[in-house]
Amino acid sequence: MGAGNRWIDLLDPTREELAAKLPREVHDRALDQLLAPAEHEDDPRPKLESHGDYVFGIFLVPVIVAGEDIVFYQQIDVVLTRDAFVTVRKTPPGGHPPWDPRPTQEACREHDNVAMIAYHVVDEIAEGFLDLVDDLNAEIDELEDHVEEWNAERIRSRLSGLRHDLLHIRRTLAPTRDAIREVVDNRIEFSGQEVFTHDVELSFGTAYDKLLRAADNLDLARDLVAGVRDYHQAKIANEQNEVMKRLAVIATIFLPLTFLTGFFGQNFKYLVNGVEVAEWTFWVLGVGLELAAALSLFVLIRWRRWL
After folding, report:
1. 284: burial class by Cβ within 10 Å (0-12, 13-18, 19+)?
2. Is the pLDDT of residue 105 over 80?
3. Can you list the domains of the chain with their CATH numbers?
4. Which residues are registered as beta bridge partners of 64?
5. Which of 2, 46, 74, 119 makes an SS bond possible with 99, Cβ 3.0 to 4.6 Å?
């Protein structure tokens, strides 16, 4: 088992190391891309290009750190010739580990040609996208389970993070799928004798199907996030309605009290000039009438189930 001497793996190589391993036919633009460090989370754009005597490609392997809610990408640049498969691994920014090729190398068979070795790498990338979307769905399920318990700020933060991750995954997944489709449609090939044989194209078709399934699951995850967001917004609106209803009830109860207080507090002459009133009238007509009005309104509101 293994890729033997056909798979040449380099980690953050220098120009001299690349020159010693790569075929001379590689043009300067591809060489500059191979030497460029990984500077952003999801750049550059994945692709696969045929250049006659060699094939050049860029892939990004997604990795999710579930405990920290972090998604980062491990960049792999590939160069295929008829006799060699070269991978240039780049250390991701932020101190994350680079892609480990050993499990994929062990999956290769001794008689696999360079195109089939490339398929094993592509298949691991497709599996990575499936695992990433599954982990994303698990986070959405967690958010749905705690949407009633967590405070609004935490929910908004998680929703924002999930939407951000969805956009970045789609930005990487779509061009990766399109690059694999190039092989499936027989648009990637060397000049001369065929290297991407029918068996290889069928294998790439399996990886393409996995990427299609990941894209479908990503659309479902987007709908789930939208559903949680809509539910959260409706929950906030209902809570605000409850607050406004209670404030309206309080204002309604105090409305007759305000009216009675204002009415009996008027300083018209015929109300206060030489009028002798008993002390009990204050408690009956003043306090008693106001309490009766307030209690009557409260009973009415409870009877109509407005509160």
Report:
1. exposed
2. yes
3. 4-237 (3.30.460.20), 244-303 (no CATH)
4. 71
5. 74
CB 213 within 8 A of CB 258: no
Residue scoring higher pLDDT (136 or 126): 126
Q: What is the pTM of this model?
A: 0.76
Residue with token string 């809509």: 230
Residue 94 in tokens: 């932020």
Say if strands 70-80 and 55-65 run parallel, antiparallel, or are unpaired: antiparallel
